[in-house]
């Protein structure tokens, strides 16, 4: 497919014009498009006039990059939810794609496209909507504005007890998740709230309490004494008697990137999701 046509579909379908984002911590080089350096969304590197295959991934981790290079394809698009790799154990937690990788990508006609806030915005392919769907939760509302768009989901679950929902969560992501039980073990009114990724924000919990919701599912929920916002979030959850179930940044956002393979397929471009490794210290 002609690359510009595919990028136009992404631009329009994900409404980049109504979003903003900020990846100013990225190292900007001659490989990065001028447009991306201005708005931090869309085409990161422009290395091919046509796209024959697409890889989707949550982060540009070493595993993801290694898979793409070893496949030895050309005229490829790497679609990323984040333009930088993430590890909560490092400082800074986000790190750049190595320049040598960007050089290799240019030589092999591998372009990079990034949608962070636009993919978080609730919709068919979004992070939280697909996270909810993976847990069998029916969306009934939305909340929590981020970069001008709403990314949180309020939904109905068939589970009555948080332990049962915790098990469903673990089955969906394929590993253990962590429960912080600050409220009643019974899910209030069959309603839960979700924000995929890094959604442990102290401002969320009073809103959920006022909505009659006592169970919140997210990605990152690690309490770090040296990081005051995490301490404040847990204090607010405890005060509001909201249970938190956390399943890592990567695992709660991977469902959107899996779904994105369908987006590209509708334009006749085959592709695959490239798995990463969840950072269990997130929870």
UniProtKB/TrEMBL annotation:
Pfam families reported in the protein's UniProt record: DUF34_NIF3
Record carries keyword Metal-binding: yes
GO MF annotations, alphabetized: metal ion binding
PANTHER family: GTP CYCLOHYDROLASE 1 TYPE 2 HOMOLOG, NGG1 INTERACTING FACTOR 3
Any single Gene Ontology cellular-component annotation: cytoplasm
Family: Belongs to the GTP cyclohydrolase I type 2/NIF3 family.
Keywords associated with the record: Metal-binding
Record-given protein name: GTP cyclohydrolase 1 type 2
